[in-house]
Design goal:
Pfam families: Usp. Belongs to the universal stress protein A family. Residues 1-145 form the UspA domain. It is a single chain. The chain is α/β, with parallel strands linked by helices and 155 residues long. The chain is built from four helices and five strands, in the order E-H-E-H-E-H-E-H-E. A five-stranded parallel beta sheet has the order 3-2-1-4-5, sandwiched between helices. Strand 1 (4-9), helix 1 and strand 2 (32-39) form a beta-alpha-beta unit. The longest helix has 25 residues, at 58-82.
Amino acid sequence: MYRKILIATDGSAVSNLTACAGVAFAEQMRADILVLYVAPEYQYPVYIEIIPPSYPSEEEYRIAMRKAGSGHWQPVLDAAAKRGLEASGLTAFSDSPALKIVEVAQLQHCDLIFMGSHGRSGWGQLLLGSVTNKVLSHSTLPVLVHRLIKEPPAQ
């Protein structure tokens, strides 16, 4: 039914468990997987007149975020490989993660977006819940929202 599934992750423990469920679902469908991490856009320090030498350049920031992104999606790729699934990872940049998730899913010809109902814990959980709601309201593709029954232990 589904040939390519986008699994959105933010690297949190909840998101990692959701990604594992996404891999299991993809295995049932025999679908390929695209794991997506959306990093915030680079922010110039607007509160000062001169950029301090210790402040990362935009290029340094992008390199660091790509490395962080690959750290978030590599375990998902490894899990997919163990199940014999084709999988790739992508780090994208946007200050609107929901719209970027929808855009990437369309550009990469995905059939389904698989994501958690919430990501980070505490206040961040509310924000990522709103990301899920925005994806649901903006996507023309089917969105499967995975909800954990039990929260993972705090780290």
